[in-house]
Write a structure and sequence with these properties.
- It contains twelve helices and 18 strands.
- The chain starts with 5 loop residues before the first strand and ends with a helix.
- The protein is α+β, with helices and mostly antiparallel strands.
- 44% of the residues are buried.
- The strands form three sheets. Strands 14-11-13-12-16-17-15-18 form an eight-stranded antiparallel β-sheet. Strands 5, 6, 7, 8, 9 and 10 form a six-stranded antiparallel β-sheet that branches. It has a four-stranded mixed β-sheet with strand order 1-2-4-3, with no helix packed on it.
- Helix 10 runs antiparallel to helix 11.
Length: 438
């Protein structure tokens, strides 16, 4: 990439789109020069966050920091540069009998981004966030110095950077732990729920499962509000697998990956097509409960099978709105949120409900709190800002918070849990938007 190159930059939601300087280097000396020569810098991984968190006046792309440093196969510890993608980690580790302790819904995010967002997965109630398994990382701070951050060394910087959205410096490399697995398959159970009461009961009954997640039909009203399908799973042991899978338990067959070749016209996604999709998705499972074995990619990364699926939302782009409501008021809060969405007509193709366990108080910038989190995709249109304001008010009413990795237009009062980060060197558009609204 050419130095001082101004280009159009956007993240996965294609909203907002900005023209800014973006540079990528693999030399620490040149990265230091970039940091020292600019007043406002923000790091950007693979651009798979949804909002404006990794956009700024001067963007440093970590894509060229893509090398593995070491892999301790005996203890399951990997060290790599921050631009390495989780997909790269899986490609190396799964054949060796290891998997990520925590993974979000896409494997195409960088390790540095996973730390800066402190990503969570379908197992937060059981195994917490990504940070629980981070041993240490190298951080370039405002004066260009590179420091090691861990729970013992520079611990203040360590915890500020966990979920700190890149505002403490540029993460250059990281060392983290992996979990042992016997196969690349998941033992899954899918259970249909007719309404919100039933899905919350199923989550309560499934707390002993490592992985739980629910697809939810966000356009249902009345007695059907919260109609959903719960998926729960465990890493399958080799002896559990059917014979055809047990022969090579850690190897997956390569699948074709179609690509969306163009942006869909704006009229394709509307309340009617969303209703039809939701109806068909719920009805495709004919039985109340289905048990099967599926590969880890199908379970964890169902959307990754389609390249550039974000183009489905058209050139205007989309946002993902994700909030968490405390557990004690979770059902009441989610009901009000779903009613508001259904009445707005702004339906979401992808509405995902998960359960969070207790949060780590040391990771004070991390998003999760004990409760229920709902993530929704909304096409950008003239009515969306008004809907987001209504949702913000409900989240605030019930003592919840929003996820900064997804945020691009929410109120500052919901994003004020970034503490102890007032560094003028590392600044994003998101941070400036929040500060300016206070």
């Amino acid at each position: 990439m050419k130095p001082n190159f101004i280009q159009k930059v956007t993240n996965w939601g294609n909203f907002p789109i900005v023209e800014k300087e973006m540079k990528s280097e693999d030399s620490f000396k040149k990265i230091k020069e970039f940091v020292l020569n600019h007043n406002e810098v923000i790091a950007r991984g693979n651009g798979r966050c949804y909002g404006d968190a990794s956009l700024g006046e001067h963007i440093f792309s970590t894509k060229r920091l893509n090398k593995f440093i070491s892999f301790d196969r005996l203890n399951g510890v990997i060290e790599c540069e921050s631009g390495v993608l989780l997909s790269d980690v899986l490609e190396v580790s799964v054949p060796q009998g290891y998997f990520l302790y925590v993974t979000p819904g896409t494997k195409y995010i960088s390790v540095g981004g996973a730390i800066a967002s402190d990503v969570h997965g379908k197992n937060h109630h059981a195994e917490g966030c990504f940070s629980e398994y981070v041993i240490d990382f190298k951080l370039m701070i405002e004066n260009g110095e590179i420091i090691t951050c861990s729970r013992e060394e520079n611990s203040d910087r360590f915890w500020a950077s966990i979920g700190g959205m890149g505002l403490t410096g540029i993460i250059l490399s990281a060392k983290f732990k992996l979990k042992n697995i016997e196969s690349a398959y998941i033992r899954q159970e899918s259970i249909k729920a007719e309404n919100l009461d039933e899905i919350f009961r199923l989550f309560d009954e499934s707390e002993s499962w490592t992985y739980t997640v629910a697809w939810i039909d966000c356009l249902q009203k009345g007695k059907d509000i919260g109609r959903s399908i719960l998926m729960r799973g465990e890493h399958a042991f080799q002896h559990e697998l059917p014979q055809t899978l047990a022969q090579k338990p850690l190897r997956l067959k390569k699948k074709p990956q179609p690509t969306i070749p163009f942006y869909f016209p704006g009229f394709v996604l509307n309340s009617l097509t969303v209703k039809i999709f939701n109806f068909l998705y719920y009805k495709k499972q004919s039985k109340k409960e289905v048990k099967n074995f599926i590969d880890y990619e199908t379970f964890f990364y169902p959307l990754d099978v389609i390249n550039e699926w974000n183009k489905i939302y058209g050139k205007s782009g989309f946002i993902q709105y994700q909030m968490v409501i405390p557990k004690e008021t979770g059902k009441e809060g989610m009901k009000k949120i779903l009613e508001t969405i259904a009445n707005s007509g702004n339906g979401s193709f992808l509405a995902v409900l998960k359960l969070f366990g207790k949060n780590n108080p040391e990771a004070y910038n991390s998003f999760p709190i004990e409760g229920y989190t709902l993530a929704l995709d909304f096409k950008v249109n003239s009515k969306l800002k008004k809907l987001v304001e209504k949702l913000d008010n409900i989240v605030q009413e019930f003592g919840g918070r929003i996820y900064l990795t997804k945020d691009s237009m929410s109120k500052s009062s919901l994003t004020n849990y970034l503490k102890n980060i007032q560094n003028p060197k590392f600044v994003s558009m998101q941070h400036k938007r929040i500060i300016n609204n206070n």
